[in-house]
Amino acid sequence: MSLSRFITLEGIDGAGKSTHIEFIKEYFEIRSIPYILTREPGGTPTGELIRDILLRDEMSPITETLMMFASRSEHIASIIRPSLEKGLTVISDRFTDATYAYQHGGKQVSSETISSLKSLVQGGLEPDLTLLFDLPIEISGERLNKSRVLDRFEKQDSTFHQRVRETYLMIARKNKDRFKIIDSTNTINHIQNEISVILDNIYQ
Ligand code: TMP
Question: Measured from the CB, is residue 98 less than 6 Å from ligand 1?
Fold first, then answer.
């Protein structure tokens, strides 16, 4: 059986995704499971240029949505599909659930618009597993304020982040087979154990 899988990592800004990515990388390294870690927006030279613009410049919600999918289209064609075909596990730090959460939930772009762009760009491609790092926005907000210079999305107000969180949780409830919700209020050790158990179920 091929071990190639498409795994995505999602969550509101400040939910601790970056901390756990290091642990996930180690999980694959230690077991010599071939994988590629990539991200959206970004993941390709064109996508990274699009990312810089997206995180910096003000634009209309629909332009933002189109640019997310422009980056995704490149990413799928030149990284995700070829890597899966070669038998690698693809771990993407964010994917289309983020567009529903941020551009639909956060910025009120219609879900029909996002769905039609999704079918244009993705066809039938869907993640096999999505880890959703979930945290109350009061805590994620505190974490963000303590950290680095904030980008355009991180600077949005708490009602925006609340809508993003609720949309993620709603998508997770509707897609129980694909989603695992990780409670990011737990300790790092607890979360790492939880991630190991989830991945062991796939790779052992
Ligand atoms: P990151 O900080 O997790 O790398 O993600 C960059 C920002 O881009 C983050 O605030 C979420 C946002 N984003 C969207 O708004 N829509 C999308 O489709 C994706 C992939 C990310």
Answer: yes
d(CA 169, CA 160): 14
pLDDT digits (tens, 9 = 90+) for 57-67: 999 999 999 99
- With a 6 Å cutoff on the Cβ, whether 94 touches ligand 1 is yes
- Residue 67 CA to ligand 1 center (angstroms) comes to 11
Interatomic CA distance for residues 68 and 66, integer angstroms: 5
Predicted TM-score (pTM) of this structure? 0.96
From the CB of 75, is ligand 1 less than 6 Å away? no
Token pair belonging to 5? 């899988």
SS3 for 15-67 is CCHHHHHHHHHHHHHHCCCCEEEEECCCCCHHHHHHHHHHHHCCCCHHHHHHH
Euclidean distance between the first and final Cα of the chain, in Å?
12
pLDDT digits (tens, 9 = 90+) for 84-104: 999 999 999 999 999 999 999
Q: How far is the CA of 33 from the centre of ligand 1 (A)?
A: 27
Mutate to test the pocket of ligand 1, among 80, 94, 155 (most ligand atoms within 8 A of CB): 94
Contact of 13 with 162, CB cutoff 8 Å: no
Query: What pLDDT does residue 1 have?
Result: 43
100 Cβ closer than 6 Å to some ligand 1 atom? no
- Does the CB atom of residue 74 touch ligand 1 within 6 A? no
